[in-house]
Amino acid sequence: MIKINDKIELFGGYDYNPLFLKNPPAQSRTGKVIKFIPGQNKNTAIVIELDEEISGEKITGKYIVLETRYEDQNWQQNRPVHIELCDFFPEDKTWKERKQGEWIEATASYKILK
User: pLDDT tens digits for 13-27?
Assistant: First the structure.
């Protein structure tokens, strides 16, 4: 189960060369779980502070929001996640109710680092 302060590694993606691994180029991204916020569905979303800033097509930021890809998914399963890049610290509100970042990946993989 993912907890606050866990170190997370993100890798893979929908494309062969996914946007979240392009700027700057990397094989994976790492960061720390900062908080849980309401998700788009019944699942919570996770706010990660990345170890370094990354750029999407429109913004550069150090915070990402991970959302479960499947409605029946939970954070005990290592299944694909959506990534939203933020150039601000996300509020404790659902995606529709808060300032939104840039959607940069639909099927990233993650693992908890020890």
Answer: 888 889 999 999 999
